[in-house]
Amino acid sequence: MKAFLNILMLVSLMIFDLGFSQKKNFDEDAQKRNISQLLDDFNRLAARADYQNYFDCFAEEATFIGTDASEVWSKKEFMEWAKPFFEKGKTWNFTSLKRNIYFSPDGNFAWFDELLDTQMKICRGSGVLEKKDGKWKIRQYVLSMTIPNEVADEVVATKSPMENPLLLKLRKP
How many CB atoms neighbour CB 133 within 10 A? Predict the structure, then answer.
């Protein structure tokens, strides 16, 4: 029994030390700079209609969620949808105004939210990133339009005729 407790204590100390050393070696400020650079490049690449490099920012398993309720796309689907815009050089130009970045305890995942200056006025970008082979990739990106509370009723009235059929469809069991 004493040997079992000694082994259990040794294993516990090893796990604690492993967790501590991972955290100790994690430079949060440097990782925030790396992620901010990726997201800023991501926005600049779209503005320059650089199709290949823009989509290289995404992980292969990525999901893009757009402003329309129907827009939930795999990376491949988003690439197909966006290709004509990139080919014509008629893409989007977003600039981050304010960004927050957070990390998982092991430092391999991060999530962010940011306010964006866009042709649609202020939008919100949010998402999840994963660090693989030392490089951050976007796993999920969500683009949302912001709606000032003072005009929310007007916006709901405007979009209701378009979204009511979708609501009925989605509510069906």
Answer: 5
Question: What is the mean predicted confidence (pLDDT) over 152-169?
Answer: 95
d(CA 2, CA 41): 57
Residue 64 carries which side chain, given as an amino acid letter? F
Quick check: 73 and 93 in contact, CB under 8 A? no
Residue with tokens 């757009």: 66
Buried b (16+ CB within 10 A) or exposed e, 70-104: eeebebeebbeebeeebeeeebbebebeebebebe
Return d(Cα 133, Cα 59) in angstroms, integer. Answer: 12
* Contacts with 63 (C-beta within 8 Å, 6 or more apart), sequence order: 72, 73, 74, 75, 139, 140, 141
Q: What is the pLDDT of residue 173?
A: 87
Cβ atoms within 10 Å of 43's Cβ, excluding its own = 22
- Token readout for 169 is 């469809």
Q: What element of type H or E holds 32?
A: helix 28-47
Using CA of residue 70, residue 72, residue 74, residue 80, what is the dihedral sign?
positive
- Indicate the average pLDDT of the chain: 91
- Please state the pTM of the whole predicted model: 0.83
